[in-house]
Design brief:
alpha/beta, 2-enoyl-CoA Hydratase, Chain A, domain 1, four-stranded mixed β-sheet, about 325 residues
Length: about 325
């Protein structure tokens, strides 16, 4: 299987993209497998940190254009082409023949609520979907031979897997624009200077260094680590949550207003009451980043690990985390 998933006794998962004949690019099947690897990691309570890497001279180069584009074209044409879009909208279709329609974006961690830490061990070329996925990782280690690029503009294409949104929020604006607009292939040392990487280490030390970072995280309470990442992400991308909530409320208001009968005054009164409830609910759901932080903090202080940490400190012994 070209997407390997290994879980060790240290709570560390190693995900390896192993398709060197295609420079570790992905067709429909491998996007599906990569997405499933992330879902497996997220659902496994015994897995606390993931390391993602590639084989040979490539980390991940996104879609296999020679195979993926023909697959998608054949896939859509065989299902009615434009008619499929209507079917998706009308029937809420999300999966066809075992492939989910968002496998490609979920595989590169776009809009994925994954709060466990992810470390990228970049062993070579990181381009296209590789850069998209890199934006969804937390710590990034690279070997000197690694190179990074958002090269879609050179091909007249657009990087729609999250990079144009995430990169300017993660590194200084001028550096992000250099990446995005020049579309150059950037060496690891320069990427480190730009703030994209945590470290550049010799290739033979890449995975060991990634595991050292993972062990530093595992020394901490897993729920506290995940909650900290959650709070940081919800602060960085707070508009995502707010827009979705407002959109849901707008839809509900539209449905409420559609019930008004101009010949029936009672229907207007009922609609106003229902609309008020919608707005009241929205007001309760919308929270600032600091309010979200306070809610997460309150939950963490109620966990068993929050009791264990101070107790272990007082007893001068290492804590035994339960992830509870």
């Amino acid at each position: 299987m070209p997407i390997h998933y290994e879980n060790d006794d240290e709570h560390i998962v190693l995900i390896t993209i192993d398709r060197p004949e295609a420079r570790n690019s992905a067709d429909m099947e491998h996007f599906k497998l990569l997405r499933e690897a992330w879902e497996r990691f997220g659902a496994d309570d015994d897995a606390w940190v993931a390391i993602i890497t590639g084989v040979e001279q490539s980390f991940f180069s996104g879609a296999d254009l020679k195979k993926y584009i023909p697959e998608i074209t054949k896939f859509l044409s065989g299902l009615g082409g434009e008619g499929l879009q209507k079917q998706i909208a009308d029937e809420g279709l999300t999966e066809i023949n075992g492939y989910r329609l968002d496998d490609g974006t979920k595989a590169v961690l776009r809009n994925v609520a994954l709060y466990k830490p992810v470390i990228a061990a970049v062993n070579g070329f990181c381009t296209a979907g590789g850069m998209e996925m890199l934006g969804g990782t937390d710590l990034r280690i690279a070997c000197p031979e690694a190179k990074f690029a958002v090269m879609e503009p050179k091909r007249g294409l657009f990087a729609g897997g999250g990079t144009t949104v995430r990169l300017p929020r993660q590194i200084p604006w001028p550096y992000a624009m250099e990446f995005l607009l020049c579309a150059d292939l950037i060496p690891a040392e320069r990427a480190f200077e730009m703030g994209l990487l945590n470290a550049v280490v010799p290739r033979d030390q890449l995975l060991d260094t990634a595991r050292e970072f993972a062990r530093r995280m595992i020394a901490n309470a897993p729920l506290a680590v995940q909650a900290t990442k959650q709070s940081a992400l919800q602060g960085l991308y707070h508009d995502e949550d707010e827009v979705k909530r407002v959109r849901t409320a707008v839809k509900a208001l539209h449905e409420v207003l559609a019930t008004i009968d101009t010949d029936d005054p009672a229907s207007s009164k009922a609609a106003i009451t229902a609309a008020a409830r919608v707005l009241e609910g929205l007001g309760k759901e919308l929270r600032t980043a600091f309010e979200k932080e306070s809610k997460i903090s309150s939950w963490i202080f109620q966990t068993e690990d929050a009791k264990e940490g101070p107790k272990a400190f007082a007893e001068k012994r290492p804590p035994v985390w339960q992830a509870k």
